[in-house]
Structure formats: structure tokens, C-alpha cells
């Protein structure tokens, strides 16, 4: 992590050299990317709950809240908040169905990210397995350096999976029915393509534009090839959610994939840190504004815990 800290320090020391116009466009494209994903998830939810009213405002608020929390907390914590918030806005919604909609939401992204990774693999741009442990700032070192916190994060996910397994064992038939309900839109491929894939394709266009603008803002050659390399790194970083936004993983991989380019390591790391800081701040502002507007409080963890206790008491 020392290289990431040094890059962050260099970034803040050279703010005057940042291209602010390009950075502004980068943030605008980042916002448009997030907005473009909202109708895709809403259409998945509408197909799962055809008899319920699925308001755009409620879905947008839940989505922004989840993205905002994910930008500052590890282990995709924001996804749990997103499910909680949208469940409050859809009559009859259940967590198994809502959880399944998140899987459907990732299908198109998986195909696109897989195609980009395949391109990088064929081109020999990715590190070999024997190289991975030696890359700087890769955050699979993080669990070894912070074993207690890593154990807590792992424990939380084990508990969540165990609860789901218990619920599923007790109500297998009902559980499976609710999970299938979340995949309802896949039974109508045309609706999936027009209502989900097209919006997500647009979000990838904005994602590409975001990276391109930030490369220009930090005076790194803003080419299509370099943009694709950054997208490869971002896709790989999501596989290791030990830190918010994959910070550490992105920086270590970025230095490796650009190893043959005549770009200084400091410039690459400053670009990566700068883009993560700027987009995380925007996402966090949108997220916590959405939490406050939807819950009238920023102490969402206590509210979620209280609601879950009441629900458990009713079931008991």
C-alpha cells in the first residue's frame, strides 16, 4: 500500500497540473453511467413484480445509496443496503427475489467484461499466476496484513450465506419460487435486450468515456487502447472486494499492464488514485443524500437492524 499512499500524496501535491475541464467531463460521464443503470434494474424489478408499482424514484434512491456505500466500505456492503431500501418501496418484495435481480443485473456486464479480459489475455497483457503474488499493492496481501478485519468480513458473509441456507432449507419450495421470480425477465429475451442490455450497453459507453476523460485530465495518453487497459484492470479489481473500489488491486495491476508503455509509474498511480478519489466522492455524495432522503437519517445500520428485529419478532 505504500506506493498507493505515495501516489495519493503526489496527486494532492500536483492538483494545479490536473486538467479540470477533462476531470469535470469525467465526473459527468460517471454520473451518466450510474443513471443509465437505473432503468435496467427497474425493468428487472418490474418483470419480477408485475402487479406492484415500481417507482423510478425509489429504485434510483436505492441504487445510488448502494453505490455510495460501496465506494467507502468493502465487501459490497452497499448491495445489502440497496436490497433493504428497495424492499421498502415494493409491496410484497422479498429478499430472495431481490437478490436474484442483482444476479440478472450482472449478466450483460459479465459478458462485456469477459470479452475485454479475453482480449487482454490473448494479447498477453495480463500477469501470469506466478507473477501475481509479487505485484505491488495487490490487496490479496491485505487479508494477511489485517487478519482480524478480514476474518470479520469473511464471517459476515458466512453468516449471511448460512441464514439464507437455513431459510432455504425450511422453505425450500417457496424459496426456489421466489428466486425464480427474480429471473422472470429472462423468460422474455426481447424484453431483456430492450429493457436491460441496451441500457447497460449505454452505461459501458459512459464508462469508457469516463476513463478516457480522466486519462486526459491526468495527462496520460488518452487512447482507446489505454482506456481498454484501464477497464481490464477495473474488471479484475472487482474480483477482490477486500477494499472499497478495489483500491490497491487496481494500482498494482495498472502498473503491470502498462509496463511496456513510456508512462511514468507516478503518473499512472496518480491517475488511478485521482480517478478513484473523484468518482468515490461523487458516488458517496449521491449515496448518502439518497439515504437521508429515503430514511430521513444517515444512521442506516441501526434502522436496518431495528427493522430486521421487528420482522423476526413477527415471524417468531
Key phrases:
13 helices; mainly alpha; globular; 316 residues
Topology:
Elements: H1 2-13, H2 20-48, H3 56-70, H4 77-89, H5 95-122, H6 142-145, H7 147-170, H8 172-182, H9 189-217, H10 224-237, H11 249-257, H12 265-295, H13 300-315
Helix pairs in contact: 1-12, 2-3, 2-5, 2-9, 3-4, 3-12, 5-8, 5-10, 7-8, 9-10, 10-11, 11-12
What do you see in this structure?
This protein is mostly helical. It has one domain (2-315). The chain has helices at 2-13, 20-48, 56-70, 77-89, 95-122, 142-145, 147-170, 172-182, 189-217, 224-237, 249-257, 265-295, 300-315. Helix 1 (2-13) crosses helix 12 (265-295) and helix 2 (20-48) crosses helix 5 (95-122). The radius of gyration is 20 Å and the shape is globular. It starts with a helix and ends with a helix. The mean pLDDT is 80.
Radius of gyration: 20 Å
Q: Into which percentage range does the β-strand content fall?
A: under 5%
The string of secondary-structure elements, in order, is HHHHHHHHHHHHH
Largest sheet: none
**Helix count, per DSSP?**
13
Q: How many individual domains? A: 1
Could you give a short description of this structure?
This protein has helices spanning 2-13, 20-48, 56-70, 77-89, 95-122, 142-145, 147-170, 172-182, 189-217, 224-237, 249-257, 265-295, 300-315.
Amino acid at each position: 500500500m505504500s506506493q498507493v499512499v505515495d501516489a495519493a500524496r503526489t496527486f494532492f501535491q500536483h492538483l494545479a497540473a490536473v486538467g479540470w475541464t477533462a476531470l469535470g467531463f469525467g465526473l459527468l460521464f460517471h454520473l451518466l453511467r450510474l443513471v443509465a443503470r437505473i432503468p435496467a434494474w427497474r425493468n428487472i424489478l418490474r418483470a419480477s413484480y408485475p402487479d406492484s408499482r415500481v417507482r423510478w424514484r425509489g429504485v434510483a434512491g436505492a441504487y445510488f445509496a448502494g453505490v455510495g456505500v460501496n465506494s467507502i466500505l468493502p465487501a459490497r456492503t452497499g448491495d445489502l443496503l440497496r436490497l433493504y431500501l428497495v424492499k421498502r418501496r415494493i409491496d410484497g418484495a422479498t429478499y430472495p427475489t431481490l437478490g436474484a435481480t442483482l444476479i440478472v443485473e450482472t449478466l450483460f456486464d459479465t459478458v462485456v467484461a469477459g470479452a475485454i479480459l479475453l482480449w487482454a489475455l490473448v494479447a498477453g497483457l495480463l500477469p501470469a499466476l506466478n507473477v501475481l503474488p509479487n505485484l505491488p499493492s495487490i490487496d490479496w496481501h491485505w487479508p494477511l496484513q489485517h487478519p482480524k478485519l478480514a476474518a470479520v468480513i469473511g464471517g459476515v458473509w458466512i453468516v449471511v450465506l448460512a441464514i439464507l441456507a437455513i431459510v432455504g432449507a425450511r422453505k425450500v419450495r417457496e424459496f426456489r419460487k421466489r428466486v425464480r421470480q427474480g429471473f422472470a425477465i429472462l423468460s422474455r429475451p426481447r424484453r431483456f435486450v430492450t429493457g436491460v442490455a441496451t441500457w447497460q450497453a449505454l452505461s459501458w459507453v459512459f464508462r469508457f468515456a469516463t476513463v478516457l476523460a480522466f486519462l486526459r485530465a491526468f495527462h496520460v495518453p488518452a487512447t482507446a487502447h489505454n482506456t481498454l487497459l484501464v477497464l481490464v484492470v477495473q474488471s479484475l479489481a472487482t474480483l477482490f472486494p477486500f477494499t472499497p473500489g478495489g483500491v490497491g488491486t487496481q494500482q498494482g495491476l495498472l502498473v503491470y499492464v502498462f509496463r511496456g508503455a513510456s508512462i511514468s509509474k507516478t503518473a499512472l498511480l496518480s491517475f488511478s488514485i485521482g480517478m478513484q478519489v473523484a468518482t468515490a466522492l461523487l458516488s458517496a455524495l449521491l449515496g448518502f443524500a439518497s439515504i437521508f432522503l429515503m430514511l430521513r437519517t444517515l444512521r442506516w445500520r441501526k434502522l436496518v437492524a431495528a427493522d430486521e428485529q421487528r420482522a423476526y419478532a413477527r415471524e417468531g
